[in-house]
Amino acid sequence: MGLEVAKMELEMKDISGSKFKEVNAEGLDFDNVNLSKSKINNANMSGMTLNDVNASEVEIRNANLSATSVQHANMSHMKVDHVHLFGTEFVNIVLPQEGDRNYDPNGDYKPIVFHNCNLSNMEINNCDITGLKINGILIEELLKNK
C-alpha cells in the first residue's frame, strides 16, 4: 500500500478529535499548539525535540527516549514507566521559581520518586541533594559521616 503525499499547512484551525493512522508525519513543525489529552501509540519519535512545553501529568510507557531532547518543560506529576534512558542527561533541573505557574512560596512540592529502577553507573554531579534519600537513608548524613 503506497502513501499519498500531501503537504498541509494549517494555521488557526481546530483539528481536535482528528485521528491519524498509518501516517508518515516525519519532520512536523508544531508552534503554539494545544496537544493536551492527545494519545500517541506505536510511534517513532526518535530525534524529536520538545521546547518550552507543558508536559505535566503526561504518561510515557514502554519507550526508548534516547536522542530525544526536552528543554524548558514543566514535567510536574509526569509518570514514566518502563522507559530506556541510557545516555540520558538531566541538566539544570529546578523547582518552579517565583513567577512560574506552579511556584509554591512554601516549597511544598511532591517528591521525585524512583521505584524499582536500575540506577547502576548513574552519576550525580554538582547537584543540591538536600533531602535525597536512597532506600530511606538520607544521603547528606552519609556524606557528612564519611
Automatic annotation (TrEMBL):
Domain of life: Bacteria
UniProt-recorded name of the protein: Pentapeptide repeat-containing protein
Pfam families for the chain: Pentapeptide
